Amino acid sequence: MWKIRRYKLRFQRCDRLSKAQNLIKITAVTSLLLFTLNNVIFWTRIGKDAKLGRPQLQIRALLDSLLETKLQAEKLAGGYGLHLATTWTKTFQKDPVHKVVIENWVNISKQVKPVLVSQEGNIRMEVNSSDWSIISEVETECDRIPTLRGVLKKIMSKFTSKLYGFSNSDLIFGKDFWTSVKMVLGHSSLLKKPILILGKRINVKFNRSETYHIHDIPTIAQRGSYPAEGSSDIFITNKLFPWSNIPKIVVGRMGLGMWIVGYARAQNVTLIDITNTSTILHLTTNIGIQESGYARNHSFNIDLLHKLGFGAAHFQLGSLDCVDRFTQYDTEGKVQIQKRKVEPVCYGGHLNDFISSDKD
Length: 360
Description:
The chain has 360 residues and is an alpha/beta fold. It contains 10 helices and 14 strands.
């Protein structure tokens, strides 16, 4: 009887392994087909604004179908710990940075799935050969710039994951980043309520000739520095966060980070600052560290929030210094969550202004 049970157990394990292998094969083949079809679409387009003909439309329909197949395969595989999204437009100066980002993000952890938000065929081709997922249709504002709530709500509806996040497209991460996020995932009680994980970047001058291997990132970080302002550069949350009540703030523009944190504090969201235990590098080019200030429609978020009654007094309530939970290494080198005393300035009367109905 014991032998029969043992063989049955072996068979079940083999069966599960076979299913996992099939899912891997499906994902790999689908990725190859997606890459090939994107090449066909790109080279058969006549001019940037040309209309798609019938053959191209058929290819696009097949491409969308294959993308859906890839998504279903990922769901059957059991999901990920984190889906991390970003978006960018193709520029000569930033292209080398994005190549580093594409490689870095897939090496953070097998539990982290990078997601590109883009409709540009040439950018989609670049990431299709890597282990990235792609989405195209999200809520946009201000000359078709994705909104933060639109990106996060979309990836939540498309992918199976414990956490979902957004980061700017010029940030790369060390292995300690996932170690910190994984530690938060280990506190199941925290995930029963809305949560927002935050982190600050280290500005480092980008060098085209340098190799940004993920294990070298802590060393590279030593020559960088934190920005003076207290804004977060990453936003990682669960499905319980009230994104539907967030205004249509767009990504990559000023005013996003500190307002979101102020809003989350007013809504009693659990906030955790993982800066102390996470190496997050901002690869700066000749544009400088305040790149969003030079972008088109750079003041869109500030103007939108001003119309809704928010000003400088509200933004200071969203500084990372006002976040009462943070990560720190203990004496054994393990990441732990600790609480800190928040200064009285973080509890100004303006905090109540965030508590209101939908500010769409």
